[in-house]
Structures are given as C-alpha cells and as structure tokens.
Amino acid sequence: MIEIIDAKDYKNKSVEIGYDREIENAVSQIISEVVKKGDEAVFSFTEKFDGVKLDSLLVSEEEIEEAYSEVDEYFIQTLTQAKENIECYHLKQKKTGYDIEKGNGIKLGQIVRPLSRVAVYVPGGTAAYPSTVLMDVIPAKIAGVREVVIITPPSRDGKVNKNVLAAAKLVGADKVYKIGGAQAVAAMAYGTESIKKVDKIVGPGNAYVATAKKQVFGQVDIDMIAGPSEILIVADDTAKVEFVASDLLGQAEHDKRAGIYLVCLSYDFAEKVKVEVDRQLALLSRRDIAEVSVNNGKIIVAKDLKEAMDIANQVAPEHLELCVKDPFSALKMVENAGGIFLGNYAPEALGDYFAGTNHTLPTSGTARFASPLSVDDFVKKSSYLYYTEDELKKVGERVYDFAEREGLTAHAESIKVRLK
Hints:
Layout: E1 3-6, H1 21-37, H2 39-50, H3 61-70, H4 73-91, E2 98-102, E3 106-114, E4 117-121, H5 130-143, E5 147-151, H6 162-171, E6 175-177, H7 181-190, E7 200-202, H8 207-216, E8 221-222, E9 230-235, H9 241-252, E10 259-264, H10 267-281, H11 287-295, E11 298-301, H12 305-315, E12 319-323, H13 327-331, E13 339-342, H14 348-353, E14 379-387, H15 389-405, H16 409-419
Parallel strand pairs: 1-11, 4-5, 4-7, 5-6, 7-8, 9-10, 9-12, 10-11, 12-13
Antiparallel strand pairs: 2-3, 3-14
C-alpha cells in the first residue's frame, strides 16, 4: 500500500544507478569471452541464456519481410503515424555547425558530422519493444548515421518478435542481429568475425545490459546508464483521481524498483488516490511487479504548488506529469525533469509510444544534468581555426607568454619560430 506523508517529512532518496558485484563480475567475464572468442562465444552465450542454438546471428531479409506481412494493417498504420510524429519532433534538433570570420585573416568554426555506425539495443523475448526501435533509430537516421543496426534477443524458436521487425523495416534499420544480453553489447563494442564494431550503443536493457554498457564505455560511446523507471505526478484538486492512479501504476508495472511519486496539495485528494491505486492494482495483469513498487511509493502532501514543484525538482524524475489547473505556468517552475507531460490528457504513455517526444530519458535523478535521447546523441563535433601570418603576429607574443607561464616551452617555441 502506497504511503502518504507530509512534505516536511520527505527526504529525497533517488535510486542509485549501479548493480551488485556479482553482476559486474559476470558481465566482465562475458565481455572477456566475446573479445577472445568472437562469434563462438556469442553463439554459446545465446544458447546458454536464451535457450536457442542459432546458425546465424543476422536476421535475413526474408525473415523481416515475413514478419512484416504477419503484422496486422491497423498496427502498421499506428507505427507509421508514430514514425511521422517522432520525425517531426526530432527534425527540429538537427544542427549544421557554424562559421565565424574576424576580418579577413581569422576564421573559426564548428563542423557537425554523424557517427558512422550505431547499435540500438531492443529488449526481446517475453517483453519486446517496437517503440524502442522508433525512438532510437529515427533520430540516428535524421542525424545521418551511415549504418544503424539493431540487436535484440531471439525467442526460443530462434525468431525475433514480428512487431520489432516490422518497426525495423519501417524506419529503415540497416541490419538486425538476433543477439541480446551482455554478449550483444560486447560484440558491438569490440566486433566479431561476423559483426563489425560500432561507435555507439543506445537503448534500454536489464541490469546485465546496463552493466555491460557501463563496462564498454570508452571503447564505444553509450547513451546513458539507465536505472529503474520512475514517475512523479504533481496534482492539485482539479486533477482526476482515476487518471493519476492509473499513471502511477503505468510506471509501477515496469519494475519492482520503479519510483512512484505523487505530490498533491491536500490529504483528501491523497486518500482518494490511495484508494483508487489499490482498486486498479487488483485488476492488473502485472500486479506482482506493480505491487512491490507501489508499496515503496510515496504520496507527498505539500502546502502549495511552489513546495510541490520544489520537491519535483529535488527528485529530478524521468517522467514528470503536471496535472494541475494551469500546467503551462507550472512548466516555468520546472528545473529538473526528463520528459514533462502537461495536463490531464497527456499521460506518460502517450509520450512512450506516439506523440513524438523521445521516451529514452534520464533516470535516478540524472535529469539534473542529463537530457532525453536526441539527434545530438548521434553526431560528433569538430572545431577548426585559420589565421593568416599577419594575424598570428598580432597576438603571437601573448600566446608565447601564456605557454611559457605554463612551463610548456615547446608550445612557446612553436609560436616563436613563426614570429622570426
């Protein structure tokens, strides 16, 4: 049963990102085996962890076409509309760099270039997420990444979820590999006989996948090390009790460690939500998971909207819903949040699947410094500068002196030799 507390008694304790030593060691061994044995290790781990013996890691074009043909037309239309919404939102993020000219002799600038090859991890097996395909492949394609590959675990029949493959075809993924877990991350980071290594790995996964991403960071880039999913709802007495309870449970069913928070302005509203959460919880198909996170959840009663927003900024939630009379005024008070959902009719699930904003968001309080996945995650930037001889002579003595003061005499000499 979710706990109701007063704001003055609330102490922010975000779930720390990190996993136990046993997982760290197991992942380290898996990565080491893949580095040493390549495909052999990947096939072996796939048989061990996914219960299937594969002949090929690559999903064939025939398999993709067959899966696409098996998906009903209604869902294809849904995927297509979601794709259009996501593209519309993310196209605004594309940057082209800039040039600066100071007179005729100095030119500075920035060049923006896409990454060459990116891997998108898509959870598979019992929980397959075609939404992740859309959210992670589309911004990579908009950025201009030359090759976007998907890695996703196979089911016990050796196949990949048909909805995932349909989404992959729709967004133009270049390859799909039927591998998952830490072995998939290792294969993409270091390469094997049949898999070319990538520049970056993005996408959600379980504790083993997240730990593997953490361990290969530096060899490749990653999007983030994600912790348990979380939601914080700020609600006043104009919010609808059944909506608020439903949105809390929508996050609770993700994970037993999911963060569930409601900050409201009256004990009467808090009690009503508590009763409604219990009522809806009893009806959930994933009740065993949701019940654990609900029992660890908090309903916090604040004295006013300002205090409620102060708590929201302390938590820095992955998902922040503002179910208040004037959500756009409350939006101006937000400092830390991953995705923000305004009003009673913009639930978090709308952003997860369809509206266009990205659902790959910073967790565990990292919204204090991190941002949602975007086109920026799939580009790199280079600076350039040009000086004529005359312009260098104007500032050369200052640069020479600067280098001397840092004790880097060779740097200083590289200037001095040009001033002679």
